[in-house]
Amino acid sequence: MWEDRYSSDDRYLFGTEPAHVLRENPWIANGASTALCVADGEGRNSVSLARQGLDVTSFDLSPTAIGRANDLATTAGVSIDASVSQWDEWDWSRRFDLTVAIFVQYTGPDQRPQQFADLRSATKPGGRLMLHGFTLQQIEYGTGGPPVAENMYTEEMLADAFGDWNILRLAAYDRIQDSGNAHVGRAALIDLVAERPA
Ligand SMILES: C[S@@+](CC[C@H](N)C(=O)[O-])C[C@H]1O[C@@H](n2cnc3c(N)ncnc32)[C@H](O)[C@@H]1O
Prior knowledge:
Blueprint: H1 2-7, H2 20-24, E1 34-38, H3 44-51, E2 55-60, H4 63-76, E3 81-84, E4 96-102, H5 112-122, E5 123-134, H6 137-141, H7 155-161, E6 166-179, E7 183-195
Parallel strand pairs: 1-2, 1-4, 2-3, 4-5
Antiparallel strand pairs: 5-7, 6-7
Helix pairs in contact: 3-4
């Protein structure tokens, strides 16, 4: 579905600027040298982190998206190590200072524990995880994301899943998004930034 969506459109679906959460919270990458951007799409977030000087690895299942991510990096004068990979085929034993998961809510409650376990595994002890997505209110707004209530996050869910880490930010809020053609208008968002114990 995603490859079809990307390849039938010659634009950057979510734009070329990073997600607002990265733009507005540059401190998230403080102290990090390496980052993994999972399901990174067309590279807006990985390229932004590379521009901040991080050594960035990324993957996505869509070859078209990964091609565009590499083009975006070239235009920005940086390089990223971007691979075509299914989530389940990624080597989750590789560890990074910062793991970035932005809008990865294609999984429901059955697969979510494994998805969160993979994100935990990719984050070095002492490193940080940044998870950003939608809350339930987003179903009503309909301005992006899957229209599936059970895939949405709550603060309680994320506090439970990462309560054994040091939570640096956990916030649910509304904001107007203007990201490409896909995320436009009022959105119900949630951010988690958590540090894995050293
Ligand atoms: C909503 S987009 C977000 C893209 C990017 N994180 C961003 O914020 O611009 C979701 C991305 O997840 C990718 N994706 C979905 N299922 C995946 C899977 N099983 N393995 C790898 N990538 C996947 C899609 O190809 C798509 O690029």
